[in-house]
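User: I've been trying to design a sequence by hand for this structure and keep getting stuck. Would you show me what you'd pick, starting by listing the structure so we're on the same page?

Assistant: Good idea, let's start from the same input. This is the structure you sent:
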């Protein structure tokens, strides 16, 4: 089913482009579409079709990181672990399986953990697009506090965006209307959980370059794709949204009991590291107890 969905959109675009073949490099591309695929090579196939009508330098591909380009080697610290913790907090703030500070714990797990490519050729797919002259960048919900382990794992997996991304490295700044600062460094955009479409719009405006004629966004989260589509509809972008499903089976296999046991095994070690070396790399709360959950005297 996933393959048929991606094939369908490629056929639609191919038919349109074939009909326009007598007018090369036109801008009246087909309207925006969403499709899904379990293979990132679908991005290359889509770019090849768009490139028949759009200059390569006017195509922008935006990749999500977690569970799209890279995945944690264990469940701890993964998106599915974070989402599970968030759901526990919402259901019962005193659930004993809750960590004391979800974001702080995730930062420690990013620091200690490692990531793998979601598929063996993920890095080579990025390079292939870049070698074709396509603009390529990464956009993640992670915040700037997690920049060091994020860049470490991208580089360890041979993923580099500095020479293919829009604009320059702007560092830490707060976009107009944003609630929190963002970090844009070497083609990687860390958004601190903010609206992916609106933050991309701010970046493109800040870059001051000709706007892309076609934007391809690749993300495993439906709500992130919806955010891009919301901005695209308002701004008139030609947007092609790829819902990546390549690690869905692994995500669905998440085991809360194993995750809880693993956290209990490493928690004290994290606190000991923080006590000895300080909290430059992660900052766990002083106590694991939640005062509101302690028994009344």
């Amino acid at each position: 089913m996933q393959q048929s969905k991606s094939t369908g959109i490629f056929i639609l675009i191919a038919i349109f482009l074939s009909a326009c073949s007598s007018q090369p490099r036109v801008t009246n591309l087909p309207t925006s579409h969403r499709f899904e695929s379990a293979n990132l090579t679908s991005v290359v196939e889509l770019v090849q079709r768009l490139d028949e009508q759009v200059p390569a330098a006017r195509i922008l591909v935006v990749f999500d990181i977690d569970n799209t380009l890279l995945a944690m080697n264990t469940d701890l610290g993964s998106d599915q672990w974070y989402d599970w913790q968030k759901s526990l907090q919402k259901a019962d703030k005193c659930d004993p399986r809750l960590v004391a500070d979800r974001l702080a714990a995730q930062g420690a797990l990013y620091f200690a953990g490692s990531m793998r490519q979601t598929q063996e050729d993920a890095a080579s797919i990025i390079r292939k697009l870049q070698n074709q002259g396509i603009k390529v960048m990464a956009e993640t919900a992670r915040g700037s506090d997690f920049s060091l382990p994020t860049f470490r794992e991208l580089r360890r997996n041979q993923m580099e965006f500095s020479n293919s991304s829009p604009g320059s490295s702007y560092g830490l700044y707060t976009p107009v209307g944003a609630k929190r600062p963002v970090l844009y460094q070497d083609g990687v955009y860390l958004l601190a959980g903010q609206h992916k479409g609106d933050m991309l719009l701010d970046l493109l405006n800040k870059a001051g370059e000709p706007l892309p004629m076609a934007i391809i966004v690749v993300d495993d989260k439906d709500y992130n794709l919806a955010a891009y589509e919301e901005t695209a509809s308002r701004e008139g972008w030609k947007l092609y949204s790829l819902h990546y499903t390549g690690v869905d089976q692994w995500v669905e296999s998440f085991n809360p009991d194993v995750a809880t046991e693993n956290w209990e095994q490493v928690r004290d070690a994290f606190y000991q590291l923080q006590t000895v070396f300080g909290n430059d790399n992660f900052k766990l709360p002083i106590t694991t107890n939640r005062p509101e959950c302690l028994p009344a005297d």
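That's my pick for every position. To get oriented when you compare it with your attempt: The first strand starts at residue 33 and ends at 37. The first helix runs from residue 2 to 19.
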